[in-house]
């Protein structure tokens, strides 16, 4: 990749800002080396408040991407769109929303990469092609995108973004068939995990990859249809959940209503396990399973698999609170607020200098001395990626007076990169890829360490008994990828949704 | 009050903003008709990173005031200050912080009133007087401020703000005595609840009202001294808690170190009970009592006083989570995530129209259908003010399928206005001032309702046995005000810190 | 055109702005219904300060486009770019400029259409294609763009902007030949008036349309080469003017220096006469003719053609000052400041309401009562488009006490639309297309009216005697277009540079 | 002065800005070492559009102060105000203006000092005192302010700004008399040059210092009264000029209409000559003299006093254009555009580095090569302060090919500091205070240099024959100050309006 965006020294807020934003310092998760969520999509068909509903729907999906967002509506053949860098509440104001007229809309939230990012990559992307106007947005990652892109370039295509989405648009535009057939042909060429929303004048198309790696649900609001990456967005706007979009399915909405179609047969369902473990909101359901409930079960199962005698249980906020409560309930050890997160921390927060950090200035997380002092602590977290965060948190608890720190993780060791939309670090940096559990324990300075078993995880999620792994993709734990991933140019999710 | 600030129609973000910000629509707590916290103060003496530490300290106190903030440093006799509208992370950037040189600093966060607000009221206020430069900031409210203000005006004083703080500065400047004696004389005239920080060239003075109504702690960081409204700010910057500033105490720091003095004898300690119930951060300690722990005990006591058979316990986020867990542990009923708050909601968020709200668009809080459906729910909250919020939340749970909703409140009925810094609505609007518990139950559509007893509250907080009410002010529950409040011009906390 | 950008009600300034800006009310020239300038381009090759020089160069060209701007540099094969809505000084800050490293750059300023505008159209456009990175910017308009676009769409191309520039990029990318040959093939297909700058890794290409309709000059600064739409930008950065880029020429710069080439033979030169009359800065030279000097000559010629006895001569600021001084010098009637323009008026200025305007509140222009009261005034202007502005100004002078107002225009009647980059209103709205001079005089309430003759204009500009019309395009006056303009889809400059 | 505002490194634009703006680099006039204008005031009484009229009026006075501005209205006893850093068009938007209800208003524009500046000094200042609300704004400088301030501090006053205006408010508030008498007593103590507007509930008071050093005019709009520093602001809003406020006069407007009063007898009128020479807008009239006309006469008189044979006359834009045209008309030498100013330069413009400047990058002014090449040039300017600017401009003309440069100045040598509101550099830096005209000529590299004689200046301004110096203050040229200026603490206009 030879083209990069300008990279200024510090984050500067501009009156008339341009087409990129440069996160001055790596605020995001410089302590929390968490896996990065990818993106969220939202769509409306046949409702007069399409833009407003998209605003509230995307707001509910904000945790899936904080970097940029956008909405494109269609009104009697005219597209209206607005995209920008920042949170939904920052990018849109009343005037902008009012200008997005029409009863159809698709919208997107995009996650922030560690380095520079740019508005050009904000979605939905909007194109003109032979068939008229086309807006596309996606959540996920195409493994074989580099090969398709090269093939397109070789036949004279030009690209203005680094996004998979633009590749799809080219494939659709180059097909001589009508839209639905062109989309089906295009999708049939894609390998990866993705949820797509495509809008043309008078039509909205929703699709999931053949393994359902990335979630997508459909709901109803009055006479209108709603699509969202997570069901919490349906609840937020008062829509009624109807069903999950099935792997390989293509749902088409037009003036005649809903048409159910497929671009691929349903093979093995393999929903990303990390959606259950960490990404999705606890009030969402995926394939009928509530996330809070499933995480609480993970905590309970973990307690059954690895009880340890202790004085308190605490969870790393926010993602591990449900599991920690489950662990506490199962063991009878009281759940306490041993760790607290400052809810005001965000993009523009000035990180403490290395010097101040060494002097004890905390960033967004701190231990609660009165709660942990003199206690044996069970600390629940959802995963260990590089191990650096775990070490910091364990040490934070010890400095606050914890006598023992027992770390319990609600997933198996994370060992393999993701090709389907989760931004994983260089595989060599995954601590579990090179270290044993005992070595990890030492590295994070814990008194004991236990990872939830694969079976424990599968059982905690629950769902259909008859499916392979109950319909989960566990490749990051067990290297069992649901698609081929070995291509000359295979694309890891280095920057998801691109 | 005849002078008011301009009041525009909608919130507008400006490149060159001026001296007021007008919250376009009452976003803040339009659903949560919570009591408003007042302000937070932070001070540093004798540390080279004074401004940076203040930034992180104020950030930890952000929950005490989101409207405006400011820092004033002193460097070899030169004051540097910056104040602005917004959160700490919005008002300060690296350049601003770097320009605030010096080893002394005082800082402030101020809460947002429902209506207009203005930069002129942002603190610290900075004055020049005969003695040189003077910076003052405060948390609390003076009951007899109107009388003192009138007396000052009558003798020719002019006022540029509506703040108590300016009144204090006038009193100090008009005294012919030296600074410390002038401050003592000034404070001796004040009736109310307050914590003050005063900075002059080479001196920092901290003081609490004679009943300790508003909290203030002192800590040490290296050779430096730190003051903060709550101990969580000490922890955040790595400082060690030393002690609470005592009621009526005056602590003076200068080149010779710490001088302990008094402007009033220690009479009855009467710390605001709402700090324990709702305001202070759960990781703070006030007079040695941890807030999370005390809230969890409130939940446990509540369970003992009013057990109800149910399927799940849920807390209204964020303030009632600790208590809900306590209730669950005590009863054995599982704690579940029945209500969830969108963490991205904030000042610039566009509220749904009445029409959309009626169609089901949720604002910042929503019920988790999968969790509450078909369940008998115990819902824990910290207080009922007008009752409108409770009604909405109960209905939200019912619409999500709850079979029964049993409301349990971790405080006695809130019946009397506060004169000491908590912004209470018109007393007639306090639902408990005119309705019985049964009438309130009906008004909020609950299956049952119980308020924690006064004794239960006192015992849950704990602390010194020998103190009257264990050192708490419970006036809002029992009308037992620790100071006289009956003056011709007595000032309610209509706009706290003013 | 079915795709349009969202169109909000009022201009709103955003922290995190998105990809369009919507000029809330038609501030720009709502009184001055002037013709709109198109765009300006600037390029640097072989100078270490490429981005900084582009900043100052574009700033000097700001009058050619105030809506958006951008710079793209190339540094050892890596492109860096930034584009934004607003003036050069608003879009770039020190950090942004510093991040644009490299010794090659192309930049662009774009003019504001009356209605909405969007960042997506800001230039340079940056693409990836088979050959690597490609950045393109242009000033002008392609008459046959719709046909080429349709042909491209029919063969599967997708478009993200409405810009001619994207069409060119597609043509280049689709050619199997090497870059220079591909560019030559692409340009050979274009009909219209344009100046292009194209940047690839290690190469900069500059080109002018075969009639030289839009100006482009080359200069030298040290060892580097500079390109600019107007020579004033060379002067601003201290570069030495070398020569105008000739019609049909292709200048290629690479590591071996300058290569002179052609994509079309030099036929008839036909430089846009409006550049001389109105658009270009008075300190620029086009084909060796200084603009101030040529405008002063227009005023002198006008005086010779249509002397009128009067007390004072005044020019409509800013564009007609030079001509007015010429008229004054020729006639001996004193030049006076009869009209003044408020230099602070700009994009964010709030226009007075209709009611206030009727009460006499002036916008950006006002008459100077003391100067014009009781005087017979000769008012010099450069053109009459719709006539509405002329009427307002004449009335303004009369209200300030002018006894007579004699209007003298430094160009012939403007009767025909432009296909080459000047945004002209609907031809039916051109007052001269349907009214005689006498009718126009009445419409604008003047005592007398005279338009400079075509010959007078040609002679005033001067330049080579042997060229047809001395190398000018006068089509807007005489319908004599230098290129074919009759196509099924011929594109008027409805939105120049698109 | 021990209290200073924070001083960041670079200009940073903030969403939520605070109470100071720090001009990152000394953009303003780093080349033009011009004298700085002070401030402008504007007032409305008895007109329903008071805020809107103030907006347009202040916009017309923007040249008198670009740093900050503000408007305070009064509506049935309620004050509404907004102040901010920046231009009028930047500080106010539609919402802000609409919120400023009422039929009375006073407003202010303030000039920018070279260094930091702060919102706290933005005017009008608004106070509460015994008598109710009080808003004050001023243009000018009080010589004896330090003494009065000290006296006030000694009796217990506190100050929040460094402004003269706050001193006045204290004096008024401390007087036991009624408002008008209090104002008269207060003003009687002031020595200096000033124009004041004071607003209370139901009253507007306008006043000029006893010598009329700073201009102030009154006009009528319908039934309403308008006050403005310059008459151009009356014209802009369609008001009719009525009269200048006389030296020592106090005009009071209340529900009974206009009351004419005096706080001092009319002694010698001494209007600041620099208002005529340089500061005021050319379309303004002061005491009946139009500024353009008077400047043109200065040019004509200069031509009579110091004819020089040359090829062209050029003026330094913008202030010397009128005079240059006068010189040209008088001599018959053609006026040409030899120098041009970039109209887009402004506050946020990034100044070229020293290195780039040495390489020839121009800032806002450049010479027009084609116009001056090979010519003998007469260059007209209004004054020489330090001489550095003149040297740069002369050299610029020479580098552009001028054969000779003859500098003609429309004022006598500027030798003495101003105590009345013009920000003059350290007297030692005034080139004319230590050098002869011949030495100055050498220092600025001119072929010849001539300063307009004092008599020539006086005659060019014109006005009443019978007044001493025709009512002008020429102290900066001849040391003849109209007031005492020798006090222990006398305040030079180091930062005017403070």
TrEMBL record, chains A, B, C, D:
Protein name: Amidophosphoribosyltransferase
Binding site for [4Fe-4S] cluster: 272, 418, 473, 476
GO biological process, one term: 'de novo' IMP biosynthetic process
Gene name of the encoded protein: purF
Ligand binding (Mg(2+)): 319, 381-382
Enzyme Commission numbers on file: 2.4.2.14
Native source species: Cohnella lupini
Pathway this chain belongs to: Purine metabolism; IMP biosynthesis via de novo pathway; N(1)-(5-phospho-D-ribosyl)glycinamide from 5-phospho-alpha-D-ribose 1-diphosphate: step 1/2
Co-factor: note: Binds 1 Mg(2+) ion per subunit.
CDD domains linked: GPATase_N, PRTases_typeI
Domain Glutamine amidotransferase type-2 residue range list: 39-256
UniProt cross-references to PROSITE patterns, sorted A to Z: GATASE_TYPE_2
Cofactor annotation: Mg(2+); [4Fe-4S] cluster
């Amino acid at each position: 990749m030879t083209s990069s965006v300008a990279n200024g020294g510090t984050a500067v807020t501009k009156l008339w800002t341009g087409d990129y934003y440069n996160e001055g310092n790596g605020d995001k998760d410089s302590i929390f080396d968490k896996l990065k969520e990818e993106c969220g999509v939202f769509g409306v068909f046949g409702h007069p408040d399409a833009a407003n509903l998209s605003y509230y729907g995307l707001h509910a999906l904000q945790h899936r991407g904080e970097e940029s967002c956008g909405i494109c509506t269609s009104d009697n053949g005219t597209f209206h769109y607005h995209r920008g860098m920042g949170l939904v509440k920052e990018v849109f104001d009343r005037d902008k929303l009012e200008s997005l007229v029409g009863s159809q809309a698709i919208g997107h939230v995009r996650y922030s990469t560690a380095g520079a990012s740019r508005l050009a990559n904000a979605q939905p992307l909007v194109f003109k092609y032979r068939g008229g106007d086309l807006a596309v947005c996606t959540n996920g990652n195409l493994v074989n995108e580099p090969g398709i892109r090269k093939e397109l370039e070789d036949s004279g295509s030009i690209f203005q973004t680094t996004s998979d989405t633009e590749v799809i648009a080219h494939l659709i535009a180059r097909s001589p068939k009508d839209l639905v057939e062109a989309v089906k042909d295009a999708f049939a060429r894609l390998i990866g995990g993705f949820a797509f929303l495509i809008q043309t004048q008078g039509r909205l198309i929703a699709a999931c990859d053949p393994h359902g790696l990335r979630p997508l649900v459909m709901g109803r609001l009055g006479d209108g249809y709603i699509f969202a990456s997570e069901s919490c967005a349906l609840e937020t706007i008062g829509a009624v959940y109807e069903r999950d979009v099935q792997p390989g399915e293509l749902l088409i909405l037009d003036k005649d209503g809903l048409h159910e179609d497929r671009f691929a047969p349903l093979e093995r369902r393999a929903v990303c396990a990390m959606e259950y473990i960490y990404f999705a909101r606890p009030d969402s359901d995926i394939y009928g399973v509530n996330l809070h409930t499933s995480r609480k079960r993970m905590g309970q199962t973990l307690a059954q698999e690895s009880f340890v005698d202790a004085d308190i249980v605490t969870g790393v906020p926010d993602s591990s609170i449900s599991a920690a409560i489950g662990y506490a309930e199962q063991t009878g050890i009281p759940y306490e607020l041993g760790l607290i997160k400052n809810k005001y921390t965000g993009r523009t927060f000035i990180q403490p200098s290395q010097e101040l950090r060494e002097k004890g200035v905390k960033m967004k997380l701190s231990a609660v001395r009165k709660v942990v002092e003199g206690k044996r602590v069970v600390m629940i977290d959802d995963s260990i990626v590089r191990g650096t965060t775990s070490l910091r948190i364990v040490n934070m608890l010890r400095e606050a007076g914890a006598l023992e720190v027992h770390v319990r993780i609600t997933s198996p060791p994370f060992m393999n990169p993701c090709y389907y939309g989760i931004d994983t670090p260089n595989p060599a940096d995954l601590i579990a890829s090179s270290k044993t559990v005992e070595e990890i324990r030492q590295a994070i300075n814990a008194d004991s360490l236990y990872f939830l078993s694969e079976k424990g995880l599968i059982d905690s999620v629950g769902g259909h008994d008859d499916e392979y792994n109950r319909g989960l993709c566990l490749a990051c734990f067990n290297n069992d990828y649901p698609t081929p991933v070995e291509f000359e140019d295979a694309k890891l999710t280095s920057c998801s949704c691109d």
